[in-house]
Each structure stands twice: as C-alpha cells, then as structure tokens.
Amino acid sequence: MLPAVVKLCCGISYPHLRSMTGLQRTAVAVIGQEITHLQRQNQHHTRMPAGLMYNDATLEAVPVKDDHPSYLQQAREAMIKALRVLKDEDGWEVEITESNGDVICSKMMPGAKRIFRLEAVLEASVDQLHELLFVRVEEMQQWNPSIKQIKVLKRVGPETVITHEILAETAGNLIGQRDFLSVRHSCKQKSGVFLGGAAIHLESLPPQAGYVRAENGPTCIIIQAVDDDPRKSRVTWLLNMDLKGRLPKSIVNQALPRAQLDFIRHLRQRLTATAAPPQQRGR
Ligand SMILES: CC(C)CCC[C@@H](C)[C@H]1CC[C@H]2[C@@H]3CC=C4C[C@@H](O)CC[C@]4(C)[C@H]3CC[C@]12C
C-alpha cells in the first residue's frame, strides 16, 4: 500500500523535483530510502507474527492489546506525509520571527486547518537532540513544564514506539486538559535524523475522564547538522495538531506557535543545563 502511495506522490511531484533546493532535496532523498527500508521490514512482518519481533519484556506494561503490524507503516506514512508538506514551499506565511533567528511559518491546509513550521538553530549535536527528543523521550516532563507525562507504552521496533502524552495544566489553562496517543518513529540518515509521528487509537487506552484526546500528526522533526559547526543543529519542526473539543480557531492558532516557541525555549534551557555545571552558567 505505502509504496503505491509514494509512487503516486512521486509521479505527481516529478515536474517540481527539478527546481528543488536544500531541505526539499533532503526530503525527497529520504522518501526513497524509506521505501527500501519499508519493503525490507514488510518482508519480516509477513514471516513473523506481529509483536513477537521486538517485544521488550522489561517494559512496564500498560497493555497494548490492539497490536497489529502496521504501526511501523503508519509511522512511516506519517513521516512521508509530513515531509511532503514541508517540501512544498507554496503558501507559507511568516507568523513569528524571533530576535535569535527562530522563525515560525504557517500554512492553511484543506479543511481550513492551519499547520505550523518552526525553524531554529540549536547549540547541540544531531545525536544529542536525537537522544533528548526520541531516545529519552520519557524524561521530557523533567525539562518541559508544558508536559505532565510522556510514557512509552510499547516498543514496536528499535526505532518505533507508541507513546501516551499528557499536557500539563499550565499549558492547558486556555485549552483545557489534553492527552495524545501516538506512534513515533525515528530514522537516522546521513543528512540528519528524522522523527515522525501520528495519532493512533487503542481500545486498551480510551480517552480518560477529564481529558480530551487530541491528535498530533502527521508530524515530523528534522534535525540536521549545521555545515560549518558540528556542535550546532538546524531543527525544522512541522506541528500539525488537532486539539479537538470546541475551541475557537483564533485561540488554537495563537496557542500552537506559542507552544512551539515554549518547547524550543525549554529545550535550549535543558541544553545549557547539561553543557555547564551550575556555578559556571551565565559566565
Ligand atoms: C496547549 C497546546 C497548544 C500545547 C501543544 C503542546 C505541544 C507543542 C506538545 C504536546 C506533546 C508534545 C510532543 C510529545 C512527544 C514528542 C516526541 C518526540 O520524539 C519529539 C517531540 C514531541 C513530538 C513533542 C513535541 C511537542 C508536543 C507536540
């Protein structure tokens, strides 16, 4: 199914491919590699029962009964969709330009849904960011006060996890309590690290009392080394979120880019905190 979708996309976008630059080329390159990976993974899936391959017995179990082999596919499809959106340069409007160079643009999608793209350069290596944003994702609540909890419910593969995220009340004041269920996938390429994600449904974890189940994705964070400095990385983050519930669009469309800036600010604080011991900070 996915290879067919990608072939179709490639066909549609072929005339545009010749005029592409930078990020766009990266995005297209990764789509090709993803197909190859995916085809290999799919061969495994047809031979082995779902869930047997990477079951990690040490994981603290919130039961994920509704296991099926397509989580990896869903995550990859989400990543490809998100990359296609980033690749298309048309229709982006600048929302916020910060004095430190961070820029947030937004774009209206079919269905009158606004999505947001943040671009920032961070003082951290690609590996450091991969570690903080994917490998040690459960620690995020320690450095990001907007998040009450992130829990890895299941490891679907070495680079694919199912997570449950609960927003902190501080972040939710205006928006109300939200939680998310997502499949998240990380893909390391020469050109950088790609983190993709999409909302999923699990019968074993239905929306909880007092929370509105929001949907995050298809989304993608691209982390690329800055050419002349391996200690810096360029982050391109597509935020595509449906907060659900009855919220005025104007409020949502202000809250989302703000949430992106907050996220990056906390990430920077976390990076400074680890870079220098407390007595040296600020010198
Ligand atoms: C009140 C509203 C507007 C707040 C929105 C909060 C947003 C910005 C929060 C909620 C859940 C968060 C995500 C939770 C998990 C991950 C997985 C990780 O691999 C990359 C970061 C990422 C993708 C987070 C990005 C920021 C995030 C999307």
TrEMBL record:
Swiss-Prot/TrEMBL catalytic activity: cholesterol(in) = cholesterol(out)
GO terms under biological process: cholesterol metabolic process; intracellular cholesterol transport; regulation of steroid biosynthetic process; steroid biosynthetic process
PROSITE patterns: START
Limits of the START domain: 88-276
GO cellular component, one term: mitochondrion
Entry keywords, A to Z: Lipid transport, Lipid-binding, Mitochondrion, Steroidogenesis, Transport
Gene Ontology MF terms in the entry: cholesterol binding; cholesterol transfer activity
Entries under PANTHER family matching the protein: START DOMAIN-CONTAINING PROTEIN 1, STEROIDOGENIC ACUTE REGULATORY PROTEIN, MITOCHONDRIAL
Subunit structure comment from the entry: May interact with TSPO.
Protein name per its UniProtKB record: START domain-containing protein 1
Organism: Betta splendens (Siamese fighting fish)
Gene that specifies this protein: star2
